[in-house]
Amino acid sequence: MGTAREVMQRKLRTYILLDMPAWLIEAASLSNRSFITDSEKELIDLVRTYREFSKADLATFTEFSRTKITGCIDSLLNKKILIANDSTEYTGGRRSKTFSLNADLGLVAGVDIGATSIDLCIADFSGKILVRYSEPASVREGPIKILGHTCSLLEKMMQENNLSPEKLYGIGIGVPGPVDFSAGMLVSPPIMPGWDRYPIIQTVQQWFPSANVVVDNDVNVMALGEIYKGVGKGVDNLVFIKIGTGIGAGIISEGKIYRGSSGCAGDIGHISVNKSGPLCHCGNRGCLEALTAGPAIAEQALIAAQAGRSPILLKMYEKNGKVLRAEDVGNAAREGDALATEVIRESGQFIGDVLASLVNFYNPKVIVIGGGVSNLGNLLLSSIRQTVLNHSTSLATRDLHIVFSETGPDAGVIGAVNLAMDYMFTITTSNSERN
Ligand SMILES: [Zn+2]
Asked: What separation in Å is there between the alpha carbon of 267 and the centre of ligand 1?
């Protein structure tokens, strides 16, 4: 016998992976935890992507035998993770059953902490968003204030919608800085004083002890959302580019987030595109971020407008109380303003240059452009596309799609829910047991 924790540790010992994060090992002792095999996890992930599946579909999408599929499904029905639906489709004269996630099993929260905002949602187990909330907030106020506020907002959202906090099984959190994923902490984030190595998971778990809390970089989280719910549905190799206050890339490789050896893969904002360009907050000159992130676009446009090159932009600047935003530049371009058009086209070229190198190096199937600056519209997208096509190898661009994010302002929270779902179950077998 022994304590519950000792029993759990014995149970885990046989299959534990050496590089499993401590928070994931701890999660196994949560009272609501389900234990599944890696084959069952594969089926769950397919159902998460396509919502509903028949056994025939599963046989097409996996290499599992029919017997194995039936075994996995029966086990997942027993654990109440899947439910069976009567399909309206007939296969071979028989009505075939389909399977979907059991929406009522538990609740999942998605938290997207941005540089200037907090976005929250609570979803059911099928990933359907039940409640959504957003408010401005400055991440510079530090983790104690921001995390405390985030948790009290979640609590309030649950209370107001008669959702029980005990049913909250998982919380996914995206944060705007480099994350040591296995520790669940930010490491030396440039714009976030006080957050360096702050114990985010433990803090949030004090409020919601029934939930497994997972923390990752915001762009990784957005990329994950896009392969489950957005334009990249089911795509194995995808890059999500967030262009907002900063610029970053989330890399999906073989259907999983690629984080690199220390968690900062995809930090493309500090690739130098012009050695004599403006000074970046990282200390170098001419970084992509210093030239094409939202504030940089607004600043370039303002300088030129003040030199008399755009009466429209100058008027917007005066009207906003002497502030010009990137979205103003987008609006001016839509009205046909030549300067705004030029600034956006040039930004697209700089971004496109960096993406062309990424395409040659990584050969993704889809590049998704998201973040606030994507509001600049088709002019930005076509400039990026053209530059990538001109500067990448033709084999790499033959089947490449460069598109705007479909999940838009919800990318972060949808991604955060899916991050939590990725670690919702404890896997009890290794890959060697396959087939
Ligand atoms: Zn930089």
From this structure: 10
Residue 291 Cα, ligand 1 centroid: separation in angstroms? 10
Query: Residue 89: which pLDDT band, with cuts at 50, 70 and 90?
Result: low
Which pLDDT tens digit goes with each residue over 282-324?
A: 889 999 999 999 999 999 999 999 999 999 999 999 999 999 9
CA of 269 to the centre of ligand 1 (A): 6
Ligand 1 center from residue 351 Cα (angstroms):
14
Distance 284 CA to ligand 1 centre (A): 5
Map out the domains of the chain with their CATH numbers: 4-104 (1.10.10.10), 107-225+414-421 (3.30.420.40), 233-406 (3.30.420.40)
| Structure tokens given for 319 | 């009207």
Burial of 29 (0-12, 13-18, 19+ CB in 10 A): middle
Q: What is the DSSP string of 359-428?
A: HHHH--SEEEEESGGGGG-HHHHHHHHHHHHHHS-HHHHTT-EEEE-SSGGGHHHHHHHHHHHHTSEEE-
User: How far away, in angstroms, is 326 Cα from ligand 1 center?
Assistant: 19
pLDDT band for 4, please (50, 70, 90 cuts): low
Residues linked to residue 285 through DSSP beta bridges, in sequence order: 279
CA of 268 to the centre of ligand 1 (A): 9
What are the pLDDT digits (tens) for 149-202?
Answer: 999 999 999 999 999 999 999 999 999 999 999 999 999 888 799 999 999 999
Strands (E) across 293-371 are located at: 366-370
pLDDT digits (tens, 9 = 90+) for 135-158: 999 999 999 999 999 999 999 999
* Interval between CA 179 and ligand 1 midpoint (Å): 18
281 Cα to the center of ligand 1, angstroms: 6
What residues flank ion ligand 1 with Cβ within 5 A? 270, 280, 282, 284, 287
pTM, two decimals, is 0.89
